[in-house]
Design a protein that fits this description.
single chain; 341 residues; alpha/beta; five-stranded parallel sheet; 13 helices; 9 strands; globular
Length: 341
């Protein structure tokens, strides 16, 4: 497994508890943050493995915030961005073109910027704006840095007064991640069994509400990049209003190629949990298998990251089981090079 894993993705996944703990102090020396009463909305800019920061903040912090939060995964910030906007621009490399363009537009509109990067043009822009800049650790693949990019914004929001209690959420998440990591690094773990059950089918991840949605989306992306396999995701209860009808025919085909994976947590609305139960037999008739990943831990962040680390390990086992090196992503490198030309 070590020989096939040229970038060390398994070691990076196993180090998530320590990554989250280290990320909890990245904001310690920040100066120039706005006051609570000066902020009317929060925007998070980012793409790919960096953009997951916005998804985590939306799932964990937004339900408790007194102002709205918007995630932007593209070139343009919302038109309402102004001097009352707290805007996080997240890019591991500091050179993500979509994030750079959106960040410059937001800064020009007067937003209070907080940049997160490992250097690059984004760090230079933050210096020019005289804005706080959080230096991200040197992690070879952004998708392996979910803790580094998502924890600092939560703690900045706590310091600004928009998300009290973030520090305790992080501490509880570290505890749960360490417990889960110790289970996942042994042979025959729940993640290895999940990968084996999916086999050579295409996973469709369903998540309940915000926490499950982010976990399902994260798993889909990790399967894409680590296992180099098509994967898909959707949310409950929305799935019950449209997608469930799509399983009405072609079961002879979907039964051979699709596996449903539900990402479940303790914060689901009771009716969402009921919808999972009611749709399970419908799906079981037309897909290869219906599987579940269950969260543990105290608090929303702990349960979200518990689902994340389980899904990450499963995607890595899918890669190794198929004889695929999970690290390199040449098609993305080629695409970026072509865009640069």
């Amino acid at each position: 497994m070590t020989e096939l894993d040229s970038v060390g993705m398994f070691d990076l996944a196993a180090a998530l508890p320590e990554q989250v703990a280290a990320a909890a102090v990245l904001d310690a020396d920040l100066e120039g943050l706005p006051e609570h009463e000066d902020i009317e909305h929060v925007v998070v800019l980012g793409m790919g493995g960096s953009g997951i920061a916005g998804d985590v903040v939306r799932a964990v912090a937004a339900p408790f915030m007194s102002v709205p939060l918007t995630i932007v995964k593209g070139y343009e910030p919302p038109s309402y961005v102004n001097e009352n906007t707290l805007c996080f621009a997240v890019s591991f490399s500091g050179g993500t073109e979509e994030t750079l363009e959106a960040a410059q537009a937001a800064a020009a509109a007067g937003a209070r910027m907080v940049a997160l990067s490992n250097g690059g043009p984004l760090a230079e822009l933050a210096a020019a704006w005289d804005s706080p800049h959080i230096v991200l650790p040197d992690i070879p693949m952004p998708r392996a840095g979910i803790g580094a990019v998502s924890i600092p914004p939560l703690l900045v929001l706590e310091r600004v007064g928009l998300f009290p209690g973030a520090s305790q959420y992080v501490a509880d998440a570290v505890d749960q991640l360490r417990r889960r990591r110790d289970e996942l690094v042994i042979d025959g773990s729940v993640a290895h069994r999940l990968a084996a059950a999916i086999g050579r089918t295409f996973p469709l991840a369903y998540g309940g509400e915000a926490l499950g949605e982010v976990a399902a989306y994260r798993f889909k992306c990790q399967v894409n990049e680590n296992a180099k396999v098509p994967a898909f995701w959707a949310t409950v209860p929305e799935m019950c209003h449209n997608e469930i009808c799509g399983w009405g025919q072609h079961g002879d085909v979907t039964r051979q190629v699709m596996t449903v994976v539900g990402f479940r947590h303790d914060f689901e609305h009771p009716q969402v949990a009921r919808r999972f139960e009611l749709t399970q037999p419908v799906l079981d008739e037309v897909v290869h298998d219906v599987l579940e990943v269950r969260a543990s831990g105290d608090g929303a962040l702990a349960q979200l990251l518990d689902l994340v680390i389980q899904g990450d390990f499963a995607s890595l086992h899918m890669a190794v089981d198929a004889g695929v090196d999970p690290g390199p992503i040449p098609v993305l490198d080629d695409l970026k090079a072509a865009l640069a030309r």
